[in-house]
Amino acid sequence: MAHDLSPSEPLSTATSPGDAGYDVAIVGGGAAGALVAIRLLMRDRPPPRIAVIEPDAQLARGAAYSTGRPEHLLNVIASRMSAITEDPGHFVRFLAADGQVPGEALDASFARRRDYGRYLRHTLDSLPGRDALEHVRERAVDVERGDEGFVVHLASGARLHAGHVVLAIGNAPRSLPAFLRHPGARIAEAWDYDAVAGIDTDAGICILGSGLSMVDAALSLAQAGHRGRIHVLSRHGLVPLPHADAGSQHGDGADDLLPLGMRERWRRVRQRVEAAVASGEPWQWSFDRLRHHGEAMWRSLGEGERRRFLRHAVRYWDIHRHRIAPQAAATLAGLQAAGQLVVIPGRLRSIAADPAGGSRLHYRPRHAAHDRTLHADWIVNATGVETSIELRPGELLQALRARGLVLPGPLGLGVASEGIGHVLDGRGRPDPRLFVLGALRIGDLWESIAIPELRVQAQRIADAIPDAGPIAC
């Protein structure tokens, strides 16, 4: 299917329904929800009536693409970020039409995340069936199952009826526990990009967590000309590693890894990487070739081996698997070389008010026998995403659990699901009309949050939803 690629701002179609009826209600309007809507509207037949329930004024932003800051880049090159599986160059053509540098350099570029959100919105808005979609600017708080579909309850008290529901809720930040807060503490959430960039340039900062959210915070501080010391405290002190030039993703599969336990599997992966490096390849290519086998490798592990992975290996896997743009890595390296950014491996024990102002953080350095302290004028919470539906903010998942419509996923990660994304109800039975994709499938699939996985999940769900039919209201 050909699409107009002239960039434009999204149409304003937000509504506040009374008791309205739809064929499909998509709960969540970030990237995952937008991808499902795109696939539904691309079908070569009359589109279903779609409600995307999303309180944000713009669709396709979510946590990742809501940043307006130019220093926040995609972690995948543009040629691998098409929203449409059958059209790998779709995103690159959008960038070219937007006045970006054309040609091969653009294929291998790390575009700005804000531009990717704009791309998804434009793709959605340019589809011929776009009028069949309504953006409902509300928050879903409950879903009630009926004989022929669902009633979705909104925070305003309004309701809408839908034949099918897709949970595309996306990631949620992990909250800093209440016992670590003290009155007067100045704490910024890493996903509050403007708040982080607005911290006083001379303030001493401690960022809790050393993953991708830390990278965002450090880049924003650097862009804002921050002069104060930045400490990064995390259990292992490991930061995301950079991408190398793109190479072939074809080569050794994972068949020899699947029968192995975690210890032997990790040893085999290291052997592969060492052999590839000895032959002149960047180590990154070995991990790229494993990327497409992430689901199979996760599912081949028993519960005990999965727990072992989460306890001992996940952080090492993450920094090699979820890499960052070379220019972002160069900025971090420059801050470290200058002594402005200091990464501390250690476990946070407590946070208390410092009599001199700010906060005093007590931590136990990794492999040390005694605690130490450091002072911070500001604390940035970059401890990652919340994977437990019991601890996620908001009422919706707890309401679904209380109604017996969902179960926690394996090891308490996300929501239990199977197949193309059918949610398992309280008795472990798949619901043919209730779907889930993205971050909530982590326990089932593990690799479930990046665009290459999301676009496939979205396509499969859209293909499974039948044509428009009568809605019981």
Keyphrases for this structure?
473 residues, FAD/NAD(P)-binding domain, alpha/beta, 17 strands, 3 domains, 31% helix, single chain, ten-stranded mixed sheet
Task: Please explain how this structure is put together.
The chain is an alpha/beta fold and 473 residues long. It folds into 3 domains: 14-72 and 112-172 and 387-464, 3-Layer(bba) Sandwich (FAD/NAD(P)-binding domain); 178-241 and 324-381, FAD/NAD(P)-binding domain (3-Layer(bba) Sandwich), CATH 3.50.50; 262-321, no CATH class. It has 15 helices and 17 strands. Strands 1, 2, 3, 4, 5, 6, 7, 15, 16 and 17 form a 10-stranded mixed β-sheet that branches. A 7-stranded mixed β-sheet has the order 8-14-9-10-11-12-13. A hairpin with a 4-residue loop joins strand 6 (150-154) and strand 7 (159-167). The protein is globular and about 60 Å long. The model is unreliable at 1-16 (pLDDT under 50).
Radius of gyration: 23 Å
Under the CATH scheme, which class of the largest domain?
Answer: Alpha Beta
Q: What is the count of structural domains?
A: 3
Report the β-strand fraction as a percent range.
15-25%
Distance, first to last CA: 35 Å
The computed structural class is alpha/beta
| Principal-axes shape call | globular
State mean pLDDT (0 to 100 scale). Answer: 91
Portion of residues within helices: 25-40%
Number of helix segments? 15
